[in-house]
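Annex B. Sample input.
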Amino acid sequence: MRAFREAVEAQDLDAAEALLAQDVVFSSPVVFKPYQGKAITAAILRNVVQVFEDFRYVAETSSADGRDHTLVFTARVGDRRIDGCDILHVGEDGLVDSLMVMVRPLSGVQALAEAMGARLDRIAGDAPSA
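Annex B, continued. Sample output.
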């Protein structure tokens, strides 16, 4: 999804948030249970841009119907280089209703989990229920 990619690359989190459905489901690479709702997903995005360094998308694929997208990225968390992908599904209204993030290698996931752990706990506690 070009608009989401451009918003994240520009760190325009207001624009990225505007592309999220109210009931978007965010699946994190570091927690078992998905987060549901626009507010918490936007809060996670706002925090992860502070954790990722040297972030850039390197590839993009889309399904024939334009509803499923994969954005492949590289970044750094501390001294760990990571590779990952954002897997997005777009609902009939054109908004992202599912966002799953996958990250590798394990040492990168562990660094991400450590860096985001306290942030995720805090924002999950602060976010309104969906």
